[in-house]
Every structure is written in C-alpha cells, then in structure tokens.
Amino acid sequence: MTEADLMELRQARDDELYTLVGMYALPFIEPPSSALRLGRSRSLFGAGTVLGDEANASQPAYVNLGKRFLARWAEQLRNAVCKNDALYSELQQDAARELKIVVALVVGAIATGIPALAPASGLLTILGVMVAKAGVKGFCAAIEDAEKESTE
Q1: C-alpha angle with apex 40: 17 to 69, nearest 5 degrees?
Q2: How far is it, in rounded angstroms, from Cα 115 to Cα 94?
Q3: 45: Cβ–Cβ under 8 A, 6 or more apart, which residues?
Q4: Cα–Cα distance between 143 and 139 in angstroms, integer?
Q5: Which of 35, 67, 109, 117 lies 20 to 30 Å (CA to CA) from residue 74?
C-alpha cells in the first residue's frame, strides 16, 4: 500500500472507516449463512445515491458490522493495542510520526497479539489507520463505545 493510499484512508470520515472495517471483518463476525441472509436482504448494499459535493463510502449495515467487530474482539484488541506498552513507546518515537510507520507498528502489534487476524492484512491496515488518526487513546475509546453500543 502506498503512502498516498494510506493518506486517503486517513482522510476518510470515521463512518467510512467503520464501513471498511465491517466489510473486511465480515468473515470474523458472521457465519456464512448469516452473511448470505444479509446479502439476500440487500441490507449490505446501499442505494447508491450521493448527496452533496463529496461522495460518501459509508454504508450503515457495514458501519454496524464494523462496530460489532470492535465489540466482539475488544479484549484482544485492548491487549494488542491499548495495553501494549512497547507499542505505545514505539509510537512516541520521532520516526512514528510517519503514517506508514504508525500503520506498520499497529499492524505488527495486532498480528502478533491476535494471530487469528494476522492473515487479514486489509483489516489490520484499516485498524492501523484508525489508530494513526485517533491515537491509541482515541482508538481504545472507540472500542469501549462499540462495546457499549452492542449491549444497548
């Protein structure tokens, strides 16, 4: 992934990032039969109408799936990112001001801490961008928010 690709992701709105998380995380949160039902109900597909000057890649069903992913994997993500003192220390270094380095550090921490997610490089990249955009504390707050929403 190029620096320009990462910058484009970093500039995406939060709901667009959650949409991407939901798209890439679907196999980790829904069994195939449930994904089939979601697809058949057309709830995974937007109407395609764009309002305003800027296109919006947000899809409510995928935003919901993205938040469900964060809630379901909350404890593992907290251990891999939020409670990872080594990662936090590395992110404080001057070199970690570059987006690609931040994303790489977060991807490595999640892949190491949650081996089941390691093959999902696209998903891990999006999570890395979310950390780069919001910071570790902001990302961890998003996990907590997702958990609260899932229990409501």
Answers
A1: 30
A2: 28
A3: 39, 59
A4: 6
A5: 35
Whole-number Å distance between alpha carbons of 108 and 27: 21
- Residues 32-49 have pLDDT tens digits of 888 788 778 777 765 554
Give the pLDDT score at 53. Answer: 44
Would you say 139 and 131 are in contact if contact means Cβ atoms under 8 Å apart?
Answer: yes
Distance CA 131, CA 103 (A): 8
Residue 23 has a CB neighbour count (10 Å cut-off) of 18
Q: What is the pTM of this model?
A: 0.87
Local structure of 2: helix, strand or coil: coil
Q: Domain-by-domain residue ranges, the chain?
A: 3-42+56-151
Count of beta carbons in the 10 Å neighbourhood of residue 12: 20
Neighbours of 3 (CB within 10 A): 11
HSE of 132, CA atoms in CB hemisphere, 13 A: 26
- Please state, rounded to an integer, the average pLDDT across all residues of the chain: 88
Query: Which tens digits make up the pLDDT trace of 56-94?
Result: 677 888 899 999 999 999 999 999 999 999 999 999 887
Two structure tokens written together for 135: 């910071």
Cα gap 13→10, rounded to integer Å: 8
